[in-house]
Amino acid sequence: MSVKLSIGTWAYTFGKYADNPISMEEVARRLGDLGFDGLSLGGFKPHGHPDLYPTGDDRKKLVDLFGSQGLKINSYAADLWDYPFADGNQEMAEKYEEAFDRSLEMCVDCGIPIIRVDTVTKTPYPGDFDYEKSWNVVAGMFRKLTDQAKKAGVLVVWEFEPGFIFNKPSEIVNMVKAVNDDNFKLQCDTCHVQMCAVQGARQHGEKETVSSQEEFFGMVEGMIGDIHIIDSDNTLHDDHTSTHAPFGEGVIDFEKVVPAVVDAGYTSEWWTIDLCFWPQAWELTEASKEYCDQLFGKLGMK
Hints:
Layout: E1 4-7, H1 24-34, E2 38-42, H2 56-67, E3 72-77, H3 90-110, E4 114-117, H4 131-152, E5 155-158, H5 169-179, E6 184-189, H6 190-198, H7 213-219, E7 224-229, E8 236-237, E9 241-242, H8 254-263, E10 270-273, H9 281-298
Parallel strand pairs: 1-10, 2-3, 3-4, 4-5, 5-6, 6-7, 7-10
Antiparallel strand pairs: 8-9
Helix pairs in contact: 3-4, 7-8
């Protein structure tokens, strides 16, 4: 299996970079210079939001910007976080669908094959949380969006996180089964796997964990549609999402985890580095690529 490396552009707009984001032009130049194969485009302003690229011509120029540096867009992270819909609120559900539709159109116009979604509603659950109702609402929404995306030729991937509902190993597996569509798969971020499945962070009710990342990937065989690769130091960022620790500063044994992902049926060439919320993401971009080049080379994948 050969490997193509990309990196998530949201790392250059979140956290420390929110007030001084790295421009798309600068990102394209740097990633091209470093020899990346592509990028995962953040659909968040000021990067790849549909508002900023409203026409087909605008979107072609964006694709051409990356293409001029030898880069492809391997996936798209839709901006859906303002619309928590899991409690059944019809207005939120409609806004979530509308935002997804516009993001899906962006994917089609830019030739992006994968779109990311999540459950949006944060943990811990409120006191009046109706688990069964919310489960059915989320599964129904994912089913509906997946059907739309399938018609457009775009794969839907769900990125589970400790800070959003349905983050236990069994819930992750059962959601894929509930949606029950080959066009709906998981986006597995290695630091989220560590915090959700191995550490059991921010889970509702009785904690549920597995012994290792390898065990988790064995549970999701055939369910993986996209991979984010980054280390974990077993902590949370702002007590919400997983800390995306730089390679070598955490606990993940990638020489075991990467083969486990492949054994679980992940066949895509793309592996996306994710430095989300890391304050030195821009400065660590080169070192992160070098780490991955060495890792995949050692594993005979480059």
